[in-house]
Batch of 2 targets.
Target 1
Amino acid sequence: MALAIKVSNLVKRYKDLVALDHFNLEVEEGEILGLLGPNGSGKTTTINCILSLLSYDKGEILIFDQEMKPDSYEIKKNIGVVMQNVAVFDEMNVYENIDYFCGLYIQDKNLRKQYVEEAIAFVGLEDYKKFLPKKLSGGLLRRLNIACGIAHKPKLIFFDEPTVAVDPQSRNQILEGILALNRNGATIIYTSHYMEEVEQICTRIVIMDNGKNAAVGTKEELKKMIKNTESISVEILGLAQEDIDTMKRLPHAYSAEYADNHLKINFSGGKHNLVRVLEYLQEKNIPFGRVYSELPTLNDVFLEITGKALRD
Amino acid sequence: MQVFKSYWKILNRYKGQMIMYLSIFMVVLFCFIIPNDMGEDGENQYTSMKAKFAVFDYDHSAASEALISYLEGIHIIVELKEDDTETIQDELFNRNIDCVLRIPEGFGEKLANGEQTGLVEIVAIMGTTISMLFETDLNTYLNFVNAYLLAGYDSKIAIEHTDTALNQQVDVRLPEQGDTSVMGNRYYYFNYLGWVLICMMVIGIAPILMVYNKKNLKERVHCSAYPFSRIHQEILLGVVLTGIGICAVIIAGAVIAFQGDVFSASGGLYILNMFSYMLVALGFAFLVSNLAANVEIVNMFANVISLGMAFLCGIFVPTEVLGKGVIAIAHFLPAYWYSQACGRIEHYTNGALGEILTCMGIELLFAATLVVLGMTISRKKRVEA
C-alpha cells in the first residue's frame, strides 16, 4: 500500500522544550489514522509541521512521496484541513464561506459551484445556505467548518478534534460523514480526546506521549500490548481483607482492590475468570449485587502506556 | 481572485461607518461652509453692511448737518426729491432705499436741551436687518452727543467729540504666517480631509485586515494551495482600490463645489497631496489592525488619532493660534505636513512647489514608517503565538 504521509525523525523545539523528539509516522493511503495523546503530547505540533504551518528543526516529511514545504502548492491541492476551532468568515454566509475556501483550490467556476453544492449536501446545510455563521447553532457551525475543509475533495484530510462541544446527534452525523469520505477514497488523520470515537472510526491508532510515538497499531493490536485482558467488578456490601487477598491469588489475577463497596479484580489472560470469582463468593456465602466483566478499552491502553488519563 | 472577491464581501459589512463619515463631511461642507461665500475670499465675509437712506432735513442746524455728515460716512445717502408718502413707499418697495430719515424743525434745540425721544423720524421696511443697523448707528450717535452734553460740554463741542470718538478705528490684524489668514473654501475642503480620511480608512479598513489576521482563518488559508504572496497582493489591491474609490468620491465632490478650480495646477497639487495622505491613512489602518483586539478598540484608535491630529496639526484649529510647543509636537505627526501642504497649495506659486513636494514626501515617509511598524508588530505577535 502506498504511503500518504511519511514522517521521519521529526524534531521540533520551542527553546528548551522538545515538542517532537525524533517522531516517526507512516500513514497508508485509504486508512483512518487516529492520533491520540494527552494535552501537550505533540499532536497539534505534528499536524502543524506536516501542514508546513510550523518549521521544524530536523527530520523529513513526505506527502504522497513528495517533500512537503511551505510552497508545495501542488501537494497542498490534495490536502483538506478541518481545524479544532471553527475557522470561517463571520462576514460571509454559509455558501460564500464554502465557496471561498473551495476557491483556494479549485479555479474552475462551474466545477467549484458543483463541489460547493455537494459539500453543502454532504454536511446537510441545504436549508442554511444564506445564513451567516453567527446565526448557526454549535453543531451546524461545526458542519460548516467541515464543509469548508472538504469541499475541494482532497485525498488527504486532517480532522483536529472536529466534535468538540457538539451534541451527540451532530457528533454521530460528523463521524458517519468522515467514514463516508474515507469510503470515497480519502485518507483521514483524526485527532480526538474521545476514545470511543477513535475506536469507532479509526483503522489504526498512534498514541503520542512527550513528543514521541508511544504505540502504533490497530485497536486490537494495542489492546494486546497491555497486561490487562479483563476487569471484573462486583458490588459487595462489606468485604474482609482476607477475601481481598484470596481474590488476588486467583489464577491469572494480578490485582484486586476494594473501595466504595466495589471489588475490582484485574486479570491478565485466562478463561472463565468470572466463573471463578462467582464460585468463590458463593462458597464463602458472601452476598453481592451487580457484576460487570469488561474487556480492556483504549482508555486502559492509553493509561497503561502513558501512565496518565487522556484528559490530564 | 478569491481573496480579492472576499475582501469586497467583508468590506460590504463594514462600509456603513465609512459612508457615515464621508456623508457627514460632505453635508457639513456643502450645507454650511461652501454656501456662505462660494469661491470668494474669507475676508469679504466681514465687510460691514451699508444702508441706502434718504434724508429730509427741516431743521438745517449745525447739529442736523453733523448728524447727516456722520451717517453719510458709514451709509449711502440717496437723494429723494419729494417727501411724499407714496413716493417713499415706492422707493422702499423697489428697494431703491432702505430707509428715510426725517429731521424735524427744532432738532438741534431739542438735542442741546438733552431730550432723547422724538428727535427724528425714521421710515423703513419693518424688521429688515439693514434698517435696524441704520437705527442702531443713529441711536449710537445721539447717545454719544447726549452723554457729552450731560458731561457739561456745550452742543458744538459735544458734536465735535462725538465725531472724533465715532470715527476712531481699531486696527485689527489677524495673526499671519504667509498668506494663510485668507483661505478659500477649496482649502477648507481639502484641509478637513486630514481628519476625515484617517477616520474613514481606519474604521473601514482595519476591521477587514483584522479578519484576515485571525489566527484560525490565517492558518486555514496558509494550508491551502493559494500562494501566500498572491493572498497578500489581492488584499493590498483591495485596500488600494478602496482608497482610490474614496479619493474619487472626494474629487467628484470638489468638482461639484469648485468646478474648474479643481483642474488647475493648484487643484492638481491638492489631489496629489490627498493621495499622499491617503497612503498615510492606509498606513494607520494597517498599524491599528495589528494593535487592536476588536472593532470597538479600532473605533477608539480612529477617533483618538484623527481628532488628536486634527486639533494639534492645524486642521480644526489654525496653527497661527497654536502654541510653539504644540507646533513642535505637531511636526512629528503626518497631519501637520498635510495641512502645511494645503496651506502652501492654496497660495501656490511656482517657487513654492519644492516646499509642497517636501511636505508630501514627509507624508509618504510617515506612511512607510507606519507600515513598517505594523509589520514589526505583526511579526512579533506571530512569533509570540
Target 2
Amino acid sequence: MLLSLLAVLLLAPAHAAEIPQAEKKSGYDFMTPETKAMQDELTSNPGMLTVLDGEALWNRKTGAANRACADCHQDASNSMKGVAARYPAFDAARGRPVNLDQRINACRTERQQATPLPPESKDLLALSAYVATQSRGMPIAPPDDPRLKPFREAGEKIYELRQGQLNLSCGQCHDQNWGKKLAGATIPQAHPNGYPLYRLEWQAMGSLQRRLRNCLIGMRAEHYEFGAPEYIDLELYLMSRARGLPIETPAVRP
Amino acid sequence: MARALINVPKTAKRGQVIEIKTLISHEMETGFRPDRVGKLIPRDIINTFVCSYNGIEVFRADLHPAIAANPFLTFTTVATESGVLDFKWTDDDGKIFAEKANIVVE
C-alpha cells in the first residue's frame, strides 16, 4: 500500500506530453539576430571551415585499400543528400542502430581498410559535417523501420529518466520548460537538427554526443563514453521527436 | 591546415563602398590557459591581418589574445579599379596564410 503510493508519487510527473508539431522550434528560433546571421551566411559561418575540410577528406584516398569516399559514393551532393535526415539507421551486422559517425568509421575500417577516426576528432567531425550538410534544409524524416522501435523506446526512457544529483530528466527542461530561462540562456527544445555544429561557447565544432555529455554534466549525472549505445538510443528518440524540422548543419549555437 | 572564407563582391561600380568579409580557421590560443599538468600552453594567435588592393594596403588589424578562435573580420573599402585583393594573416609562429580574391569594377 505504502509502496504503491510511493510509486504513484514518484511516477506521476515523470511523463510529460511531447511538444505538438506546430509548436516545434529549432534551437535557431531562440537565437539572437546576430547569431542567426552568422549561421545563415555561409561565408561567416565558422562551421563551413570544417565542412570544407570534410570535402577535402571525402576526395582523399586513404587506408590500405587506397580508396576515397568519393571513389564509391561519387558526388556527395547527390549520394549523401537526405542521409543525415534519416540517421541513425539500423545496421544488420551489428544488430543495432548506428549514427553517422559510426557509419563513417565502419566505411573506413571495412572499405578503406583505414584506422577508425577517434570520437570528436577534427577529421571525423569534418566528414560528418560534410555529409550532413548535403541534407541542409531537408526535413528530419526518421525511417519507419520496426527494428529501430525497441532502441527508440530505450532512448525515450533515458530522456524521461530522472538522473544526477539534481534529479532531473531531459524532459523536465526541454518539454516542460522550453522558452524559459536557465540563468542567462533560453532553454531550447533540444532538437538535434544542426549537428555537428559550431558552438560559440566551445569555439569549435562538436557532435551531438558532446552536447549531451554537457547536459548530463550540468545535471551532475554520470555521462556515457563517446559512442555508447545509450547516446545512439537517445539520438534516435530525439530525431523522431524532431521529425519535420529542417537540417541546419553546420548550425551555429551560442 | 588553415582554411579561409572570403566574401568579396565579384563586381562593383567605380566609387562604390564595398563590404569585405573574411573568416579564417585558427586556434587563437591565448597563452593564459594551463594544460593538463598545469603548464601554460604557449600563446599562438594571429597577430596581424593585412588586406591590400592592387598592392596598396587598404586595411590592417592587430589582433590580441582576447579574440575568439576563427577570427571573423569585416571591413569596407572603395572600389577604385578592377584587380586583386590580397589577404594576409600572420600568426605568432611567423606562419603566413595568404588568400586572393578578384574584383571587376565597371
